[in-house]
Records
---
Amino acid sequence: MEIQFIYSAKHTIHDPVYEIYDGQKEPYAEKAERIKSIESSLKANGFKSFYTPKVFPLKYILAVHQKEYVSFLRARVLKILPEDILFSSYYIMDTYTPLVSRTYEAALTSVNVALTGAECILNGKKLIYSLCRPPGHHAEHNRMGGYCYFNNAAIAANYLSKKGKVAILDIDFHHGNGTQNIFYQRADVLYISLHANPHDRFPYNSGFAKEKGSGDGRGYNINFPLSLGTTDRQYLKILRKALAEIDNFNPKYLVVSAGFDTYEYDPIGGFKLTIPCFSMIGEEIRKIDLPTLVIQEGGYNVEKLGKIAVSFVRGLTGS
Ligand SMILES: [Zn+2]
């Protein structure tokens, strides 16, 4: 199956040098080399259809995020000097998500990468992979966190939802608290996530199985918290369950929040997935046979990210 990639080199302007982990300054894990490594490995392996994003109006972001939050992000970075870094405020949920002077611009571009992919899907493409950075699935309606500022997957899914029901499958190691938060009360967008049990890992306070949606959205939020050390076989078994739920929901479109921090040697993760497993994950997703938009989320083993992405894309495309 054909696949096209949406990519902008502009993500490199978001370049915090450190985060604060356990009270200590640590090198920033969500670095530009992540996406560069994925892009260059895909190209080296014969995947060459790369396109730059279009620019979309702010209304698509405002359809998902609170106006005051968007204004804060836009205005606050203007006061940050190029050498400065800002942590923690009312709108920032942790100390892993700093603002630097060009964060807003990079986050906007990342949204455009996602929306351009969604537009291609609406125009009849079957499979698009948006190489978003910064990632998005931890960004809530009015809060940034977990390296995420705007929720790329949620903004794209909301855009697609005008034309039919959307399922979001989140396969990042961490629970996508932001995406869950945004769609928690909606029945037209199913959110389904496989992730580390929040008792063990970030975001700690969301991602439990008992969180099933509320109001109209009751039953349209499905969490599969998994144990640390989850293996390929255990993971694929639950993935098939998740895909059966999606099949039941009968959506028109599928959005995949693809994080590669489930890899066995990811510095932040804690599962045991091998590189060939990502191909099997891709294959399972291909079998469901829906127009599919893949959105890049996490994955922090820079050395292996390219190989993981190639394995995943081979499964997705059956090549
Ligand atoms: Zn993650």
Note: The pocket of zinc ion is lined by residues 172-174, 259, 261, 297-298 (CB under 6 Å).
---
Amino acid sequence: MSVLRFGGFEIHRSYLDGPAQLDLLAALREVVAQAPLLAPKTPRGGKMSVRMTAAGQFGWISDRAGYRYEARHPAGMPWPSIPEPVLAIWDALSGVDRQPECCLINFYGEGARMGLHQDKDEADFDLPVLSVSLGDDGLFRMGGAARSDRTQSLWLQSGDVVVMGGAARLAFHGVDRIRFGSSSLLAQGGRINLTLRVVT
Ligand SMILES: O=C(O)CCC(=O)C(=O)O
Ligand SMILES: [Mn+2]
């Protein structure tokens, strides 16, 4: 394990070892069995390439009505609770007393990406967002508070955890591409990213 820093981004390389990744994956499979992955629409009607679901009191939703947090899955059920191994990562690395209220689960299949954006639908930007990567490598782009700021990119690998707090909390970031099939964690390939957020 090692820690890298880019601006305010704190990257904990190999934070989760192989057994911890499998343990987390098993817990996430239970979440997805209860709250199926969705293919969200952007507010302008485009289709996101990433599929999403969530755990916690709130899930982050995107559709024609905009971006927001909702207390229920669009199919009507409450989101499953955040699995214990996910909370343990937050407790170890977040540095704050609050507990996460949303664990957004992103699944990147072949060709999926996420454009440069800020996470700004939460109420308190003093609280960090934590990101956990599982499965295939993802090229993570990190910028500054303005979209036009210089960016740096880094391949995130299975087991890496990124803390986006302080100067990085409102920094632009995104995933340019994944290396489909680069990890053996998911038999069918793909990348899972969890982001833990305090919403209210
Ligand atoms: O997949 C990632 O590494 C980043 C995900 C992200 O930025 C988000 O869900 O807001
Ligand atoms: Mn984000």
Note: The CA atoms of residues 132 and 161 lie 5 Å apart.
---
Amino acid sequence: MIITEQKPFEEILKNLEGESKIFIVGCKLCATLCQTGGEEQVKEMKEKLEKEGKIVTGWVIIDPPCHILETKKVLREKESEVNSADAMLVLACGGGAQAVREASNKNTHPGCNTLFLGVIERFGQFSERCSLCTECVLEKTKGLCPITLCTKGLLNGPCGGAKEGKCEVDPEKDCGWQLIYKHLQELGKLELLKEFQPAKDYSKLMKPHKRILERKT
Ligand code: SF4
Ligand code: SF4
């Protein structure tokens, strides 16, 4: 899931300067789980904006706002509230904010910072697990991502600088390669470390990415 944090309210207010009527969009998926753009946070934002003298013309939680067609449909159902707003405020990831901009064609403000692709470890605790490298090597490491867990993103084993299991770059973090080694040892698969992992094809990281599924006939 996409992990977000809400922008500081002062920053949101500054971005809304000169706009008095605001329509707020939240997200039923990731931003709800991150507690940045669910119903509770959207209602809180509405209250805070109103205290600052803004008029909230309406709000909606879309399932999910990064789905452009769904967002267009939902915003059409709220046409008068959207049309009477000077701007949209989106409490979701950057993908959601841009989809709302495209669906509404209105001045759209991001209410969140998009942080990383992660997992929920427990309630309110999120950790990065994938750096979207496009060529997944989890098979070789049996499920731990070296690119994300190793601070230097090394593909073929550790840098040698770890101390007592901690990373030389950030002693607060476990050395990703020591975690991988221990895991492979437990599985009896240490021989996998002898296989050289070729350099990645970084041309695949050129943005913006696009993926179009072939239609089945
Ligand atoms: S290797 Fe790591 S960064 Fe690449 S796709 Fe797999 S989990 Fe993501
Ligand atoms: S100490 Fe470990 S996690 Fe840190 S950069 Fe070196 S191999 Fe990667």
Note: The first helix runs from residue 9 to 15.
